[in-house]
Write a structure and sequence with these properties.
The structure holds 2 protein chains of 2 kinds. By secondary structure, chain A is mostly helical. Chain A is built from 5 helices and no strands. Chain A has helices at about 5-20, 25-30, 45-60, 70-75, 75-89. In chain A, helix 1 crosses helix 3 and helix 1 (about 5-20) packs across helix 5. The longest helix of chain A has 16 residues, at about 5-20. Chain B has helices at about 1-15, 40-55, 90-95, 120-125, 165-180; strands at about 60-65, 80-85, 110, 115, 135-140, 150. Classes of the chains: A mainly alpha, B alpha/beta. The interface of A and B includes residues 20 and 45 of A.
């Protein structure tokens, strides 16, 4: 059901809003170039742990430690691409 | 989440149902600090709590939340009720992602801002959710795992800042009240 990247992007915007406690309209403005880790003050190390856990719970994926890097969490588009590849692999 | 649980307890009180929200070992005001806690300490504390509550012969429904459900199977309870239960391996997986190696040691991991025994973490990671009788389970709609009811709410336990959700507290209290009635508590 998440093979559609646009639908997946919406789900991840909502997830970011839920986990980081940011307003939904702010998350709705995230596009592929929006910078996340290092630029979004709410996204500290504990928030990353919670974000990954919630991704696993909601989407039924497993994120290994060596998969978490700057490319995956650097931008919103990078995060969506990572999850999309996981789901369609 | 604990603030929402306290709101839920007050909502149950208004409906005539008494509740106990304990500080189990390693939590809140409990004298046993988190770095010394073992699973057996929590099991012992739960058994002692139930023994004390059973003295007046009133029936008890055990309500478990998140990883607390790992310790919620109580023989003799009139019923069991869970919200968003979390298996031990998932809890430990999330905690270990926060480990600060420079603060950790061979015996203890510094996770989520506190020292926790690696023996306790190993025990938790291998602990399945119990399967007690008379069990009702609620989950968030975003959690696709099997449940008796899925409810729409934000996962408060993932938030960095403590939050509360009075609507969720009322909903959970009402659901637990109905389940308690089903289990023979009136």
């Amino acid at each position: 059901m998440h093979s559609d990247r646009a639908t997946l992007s919406e789900d991840i915007r909502r997830l970011l809003s839920d986990v980081l406690g940011i307003a939904q309209d702010r998350a709705a403005a995230f596009d592929d170039t929006t910078e996340l880790f290092g630029s979004l003050p709410e996204l500290d190390s504990m928030a990353v742990a919670n974000l990954l856990a919630e991704l696993e719970d909601r989407l039924g994926i497993i994120v290994e430690a060596d998969e978490v890097d700057g490319e995956m969490l650097g931008t919103f588009g990078g995060l969506v691409d990572f999850v999309h590849e996981k789901l369609t692999r | 989440m604990r603030r929402t649980l306290a709101m839920m307890a007050r909502a149950l009180d208004r409906r005539g149902i008494g509740t106990v929200l304990p500080d189990l070992p390693g939590m809140g005001e409990h004298p046993l600090s988190g770095d010394r806690v073992r699973a057996s300490d929590i099991e012992t504390a739960m058994a002692a709590l139930i023994d004390a509550l059973s003295l007046d012969k009133r029936p008890i429904v055990v309500a478990g939340f998140r990883a607390g459900c790992l310790f919620d199977s109580i023989p003799g309870a009139a019923g069991h009720w869970r919200f968003a239960p979390e298996p031990g391996d998932r809890l430990v997986r999330t905690l270990m992602r926060t480990e600060a190696p420079e603060e950790s040691s061979p015996t203890h991991a510094f996770v989520n801002g506190q020292l926790v025994s690696r023996a306790f973490l190993d025990d938790l990671s291998q602990r399945p959710l119990p399967d007690p009788p008379q069990l009702r389970t609620l989950r968030l709609t975003t959690d696709k795992a099997e449940a008796d009811r899925h409810v729409e709410a934000s996962p408060l336990w993932r938030h960095a800042e403590p939050g509360e959700d009075p609507v969720l507290a009322e909903l959970l209290a009402e659901d637990l009240l109905i389940w308690a009635t089903t289990c023979g508590i009136s």
